[in-house]
Amino acid sequence: MRALSLGLGLLLAPAAHAASLAGVTLPDTASVGGSQLVLNGLGLREKYMIDIYVGGLYLPSKTTDASKAINDDVPKRIVMHMTYDLSKEKLAETMRDSLGRSADPEVSKHADTLASWMDDVEDGDEIVLDYVPGKGCSVSVKGTAKGTLSGVAVMKGLWGVYLGPNPPTRDLKSGLLGG
C-alpha cells in the first residue's frame, strides 16, 4: 500500500518546468545566494548566422524593463549555454571588449580579470554569472568557480553588456527580457 501511495504521489507531483530555445532547455527557477529566482527570458546570441549561445536571465520577479533588470541591487543570474565551440582566447577577447567599452572605470578595470577566467568551451558548456548583493558577481565556467568581482557598479556593468543600449544583438536582449 505504501508503494502505491508513493507512486500516486509522484504522479500527482507538479512537474519541473523548463523553457527551451534553439534546442537548449534551461530550468524555470534557480537559487542564487539563498534566493529563489525565476527565468525572466531566453535569448539567442548569433554571429554571422551561427548560434553561439542561448542566454538565460534569472531575477527575483519577471520584468520587461531593462533598466530595472540592470540596476536593481538584488540576487540575479545570467547563464550562457554554449551552442558553439569557442577558444579561451576568443572568449577572453569578447569579455575584454564587452567590459572595456564601459564608461565606468570601476567596471572596465575588471575586463582583464574576467577575460583571464575564461576557458575553451564546447557545445553544452555554460558560463554563469551570479550576483549576490554585498558579495559581488561570481563567475563560473563549465561548472568551475573562477572568482568574484565585487561591487554594484561591476554588476551593473556586466548586466548592461547584455541588457544595455548596445547588447551583443537586439534579439538576445529582447529574449532575455521576455520578448
Question: Can you walk me through this structure?
Answer:
The chain has 179 residues and is an alpha+beta fold. The protein has one domain (16-176): Chalcone isomerase (3-Layer(bba) Sandwich), CATH 3.50.70.10. The chain has helices spanning 2-12, 66-71, 88-100, 105-108, 111-116, 152-163, 170-176; strands at residues 18-21, 24-27, 29-32, 35-47, 50-59, 76-82, 126-132, 136-141, 144-149. Residues 1-16 have low confidence and may be disordered.
Helix content: 25-40%
What is the CATH topology classification name? Chalcone isomerase
Poorly predicted ranges (pLDDT <50, ≥5 residues)? 1-16
CA(first)-CA(last) distance:
48 Å
Number of discrete domains: 1
CATH architectural name: 3-Layer(bba) Sandwich
In CATH, what is the class?
Alpha Beta
How would you sum up the global shape? globular
SSE arrangement, N to C: HEEEEEHEHHHEEEHH
Give the structure's gist in a few sentences.
The chain contains seven helices and nine strands; from the N terminus they run αβββββαβαααβββαα. A hairpin with a 2-residue loop joins strand 4 and strand 5.
SSE topology sketch:
Elements: H1 2-12, E1 18-21, E2 24-27, E3 29-32, E4 35-47, E5 50-59, H2 66-71, E6 76-82, H3 88-100, H4 105-108, H5 111-116, E7 126-132, E8 136-141, E9 144-149, H6 152-163, H7 170-176
Antiparallel strand pairs: 1-2, 3-4, 4-5, 5-6, 6-7, 7-8, 8-9
